[in-house]
Design brief:
The chain is of the alpha/beta class. The chain has ten helices and four strands; from the N terminus they run αβαβαβαβαααααα. Strands 1-2-3-4 form a four-stranded parallel sheet.
């Protein structure tokens, strides 16, 4: 009901569980899928992983459960966003638009936990030098990834590194491509997991 009143958003299907969501996504090929977590037959995390693996839509986890395990499992499954059901209707519509245009987002109240509570963060920045995933990046691309992980926009990164915004966009695209990441949320998670950025930095 909240999304149906928006002129530029069309609700093309509704599912009662994760398995049905996957089936409908395969048939309808929606741009964005709002996925709950706790559902019968197949939960939202498994459904998200299937949808992302098959590349049949971008997923926003939308749940009443403000839990770290759901948050991190959802992001690792490939969700492009994580929102709580108390999200303002206008913010929800904006989130659908943003993810539909290739951006990624987290509810403000969970963003801090992505930064501070990833339990796989290495103990020191030097650990990042040993993570083979980062070997694929140039020194400049590592810089860009680090600034992305701190939440800077492309224009802010351009200002920080004294680069043109078009150049930054090229670096961001290269980082996502080389590391096989769908979006900036996944890049943030990887930056903290590898120790490129540490909590509090």
């Amino acid at each position: 009901m909240m999304l149906g009143v928006e002129d530029d958003i069309e609700v093309v299907g509704e599912a009662s569980d994760g398995a049905e969501a996957v089936t409908l996504a395969r048939r309808l090929q929606p741009d964005v899928i709002l996925m709950d977590v706790q559902m019968p037959v197949m939960d939202g995390i498994e459904a998200t992983a299937t949808i992302v693996r098959e590349d049949i839509g971008k997923v926003i986890i939308l749940t009443t459960f403000d839990r770290d395990d759901y948050l991190f499992d959802g992001l690792r499954a490939g969700a492009s966003g994580y929102l709580l059901k108390n999200t303002d209707p206008d913010d929800l519509a904006d989130a659908v638009r943003a993810v539909g245009h290739g951006h990624a987002l987290l509810a403000p109240e969970v963003t801090r936990r992505v930064i501070s509570q990833l339990d796989t963060v290495p103990s020191s920045p030097q650990a990042a030098q040993r993570d083979s995933r980062l070997d694929l990046l140039t020194a400049r691309e590592r810089e860009v990834l680090g600034l992305m992980a701190r939440g800077l926009s492309n224009s802010e990164i351009a200002g920080e590194l004294y680069l043109g915004e078009a150049t930054v966009k090229t670096h961001v695209s290269s980082v996502l491509s080389k590391l096989h990441l769908r979006d900036r949320v996944q890049a943030v998670v990887l930056a903290y997991e590898t120790g490129l950025i540490l909590p509090g930095e």
